[in-house]
């Protein structure tokens, strides 16, 4: 097999050069027919390249088919062949037709005997933009469509004189970054930058700043850099306390990250050598603010090769494909932060995708955001347990665009076993939306409906509950670490996330804001987390387990397990209720703040939640929740001028009215169950 038809020179008015385009790409059918004429002077050179396409006499051979596919024939038969077999199935792009080609342009795989497969399997299209060879027409249409979505509409074989559009410079948290055109559309750019993720970046920065107070320097990894803004903020504001590595697999993104490093006066380290290019951009008297190592490799490979103290995963979509690699070499007491943007599956809009990615069964509930956070934590916990590591959840946030989970890594099989025990199934009632985690044990229970506090199964026909999960059943917040994050946000002037961090602290304590004041902790040098006292570097003495990520001793691990068992009662109650979802028809609800006080006066733990602005996190059963809500609601005809109950009602009357309200809602929405 020769070099193919790319170097042929057909005679006529059309002169094609090898650096312009393939011969199967033409504007008109007549141009394709002219390729069949070859002069006698060029016969020798043409025979040396593709002798199968020529025949003696006045017969003409198809320029896009070998001799075995189509023999030389007269011009009338050739015209029909070109029109029916090549031209009608072509792909059009900007006035050009990419016709199907049967020449041996692409390598074919040998069969079992060792011979080449038939020429019919070698049919393909040549892309006018990137010169790729595509076998199927539908795949070629999708291939061209992806080029158009990325803005690649200029062919490499047609010289484009237009200059590239200038890159825009954006500023966030005193960090300048260059972004490509269409930077906010991931389908049209390689380096995606989402301004709506600013809250996510600030939360991760405060997490790293709090970890930097424990030990330094920290080996930090931003596995999916894109523009590199997150790693740039770490290096610029934390200085020598961190050693930042920014990774990306795309070559254009790596180039953009290096340009942004020089834009922020940061040195780029490539393969342990300082990059000396473009250092002249610094003015006299200015110094570099730090060093950043930029790598170009697959994130899984990088995390297998090197160990880190802090790893942040923010891929486009789900992050389950990178969890095993992240926990393989993470140091002891290190932190792994995971950002998942596949909210369609996590928020139960695509339940089959959630089953495929996370191996769990979910439905749309009133507490779907916390359900999504517990799904991600469960996936993280299983990945850590496979590497003989346990986790302690520092905080979990689920907002409109993302789900962020931050965990601390605890090495050892004992911690891994304790973590695996916290992954349980959830029983959810589809009538009243009461929920409870299944009891521990391997024995099959005869009637699992007995675990639910409600009596919907006895009063309603058919099956009323569904099993969700597996989910993370333990706490989602660590109060001590959140207080340190709040202190770091005050220190660095991050005002946007201070309200959110305060809400997380209230939620972790399950305390109303009126009964709890958030200030900087009195003893920041010694915070209790995971049953272990974590000392910062400002303290004069350091524990053996908190220095440079070394393994904890067996005694410390044993004390940790014992302390975790005794701290179960202090955890916040799981899930929350939406006050509007459980409102009573014909009644005006009390204000949310007053309703929290009413629940607290009744002896229940209560707080607001960041998952839902109208959500109430409490340990009260749903029946008691509805009873108190009805007790302090006013009839609609009073106009809501006064709150509180007008006439005292007995507890039996309130319970009956609550049960009637539940039954009415169940009958109205009975189709949901089927």
UniProtKB/TrEMBL annotation:
Protein name: tRNA methyltransferase 1 like
């Amino acid at each position: 097999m020769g070099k193919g038809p790319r170097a042929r020179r057909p005679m006529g008015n059309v002169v094609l050069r090898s650096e312009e385009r393939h011969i199967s790409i033409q504007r008109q059918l007549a141009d394709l027919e002219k390729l069949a004429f070859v002069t006698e002077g060029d016969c020798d050179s043409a025979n040396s390249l593709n002798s199968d396409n020529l025949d003696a006499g006045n017969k003409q051979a198809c320029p896009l088919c070998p001799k075995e596919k189509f023999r030389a024939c007269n011009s009338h038969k050739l015209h029909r062949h070109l029109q029916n077999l090549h031209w009608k199935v072509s792909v059009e792009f900007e006035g050009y037709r990419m016709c199907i080609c049967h020449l041996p342009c692409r390598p074919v795989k040998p069969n079992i005997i060792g011979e080449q497969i038939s020429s019919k399997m070698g049919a393909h299209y040549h892309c006018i933009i990137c010169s790729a060879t595509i076998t199927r027409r539908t795949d070629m249409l999708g291939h061209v469509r992806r080029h158009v979505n990325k803005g690649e509409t200029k062919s490499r074989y047609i010289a484009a004189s237009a200059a590239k559009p200038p890159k825009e410079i954006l500023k966030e948290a005193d960090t300048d970054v260059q972004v490509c055109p269409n930077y906010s559309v991931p389908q049209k750019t390689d380096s995606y930058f989402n301004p709506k993720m600013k809250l996510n970046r600030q939360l991760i920065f405060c997490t790293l700043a709090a970890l930097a107070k424990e030990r330094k320097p920290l080996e930090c990894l931003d596995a999916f850099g894109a523009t590199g803004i997150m790693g740039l903020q770490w290096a610029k504001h934390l200085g020598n306390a961190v050693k930042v590595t920014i990774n990306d697999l795309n070559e254009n993104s790596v180039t953009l990250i290096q340009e942004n490093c020089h834009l922020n006066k940061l040195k780029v380290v490539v393969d342990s050598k300082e990059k000396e290019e473009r250092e002249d951009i610094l003015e006299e008297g200015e110094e570099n603010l730090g060093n950043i190592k930029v790598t170009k490799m697959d994130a899984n490979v990088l995390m297998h090769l090197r160990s880190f103290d802090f790893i942040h995963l923010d891929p486009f979509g789900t992050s389950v494909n990178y969890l095993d690699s992240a926990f393989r070499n993470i140091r002891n007491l290190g932190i792994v932060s995971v950002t998942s943007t596949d909210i369609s599956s996590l928020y139960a809009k695509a339940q089959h995708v959630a089953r495929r990615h996370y191996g769990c069964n979910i439905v749309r509930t009133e507490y779907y955001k916390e359900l999504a956070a517990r799904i991600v934590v469960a996936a993280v916990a299983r990945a850590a347990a496979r590497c003989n590591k346990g986790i302690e959840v520092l905080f979990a946030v689920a907002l409109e665009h993302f789900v962020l989970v931050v965990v601390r890594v605890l090495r050892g099989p004992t911690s891994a076993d304790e973590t695996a025990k916290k992954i349980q199934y959830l029983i959810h009632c589809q009538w009243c939306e009461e929920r409870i985690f299944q009891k521990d044990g391997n024995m099959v229970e005869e009637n699992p409906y007995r675990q639910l506090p409600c009596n919907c199964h006895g009063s309603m026909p058919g099956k009323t509950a569904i099993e969700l999960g597996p989910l993370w059943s333990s706490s989602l917040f660590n109060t001590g670490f959140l207080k340190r994050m709040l202190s770091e946000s005050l220190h660095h002037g991050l005002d946007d996330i201070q309200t959110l961090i305060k809400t997380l602290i209230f939620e972790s304590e399950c305390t109303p804001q009126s009964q709890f004041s958030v200030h900087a902790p009195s003893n920041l040098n010694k915070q209790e987390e995971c049953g272990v006292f974590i000392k910062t570097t400002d303290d004069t003495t350091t524990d053996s387990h908190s220095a440079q990520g070394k393994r904890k001793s067996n005694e410390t691990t044993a004390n940790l397990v014992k302390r975790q068992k005794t701290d179960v009662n202090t955890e916040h109650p799981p899930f929350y209720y939406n006050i509007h979802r459980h409102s009573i028809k014909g009644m005006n609800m009390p204000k949310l703040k007053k309703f929290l006080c009413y629940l607290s006066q009744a002896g229940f733990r209560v707080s607001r939640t960041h998952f839902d602005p109208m959500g109430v996190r409490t340990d009260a059963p749903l029946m008691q929740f509805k009873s108190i809500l009805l007790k302090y609601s006013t009839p609609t005809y009073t106009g809501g001028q006064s709150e509180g109950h007008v006439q005292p009602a007995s507890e039996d009357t309130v319970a009956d009215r609550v049960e009637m309200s539940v039954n009415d809602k169940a009958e109205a929405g009975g189709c949901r169950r089927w």
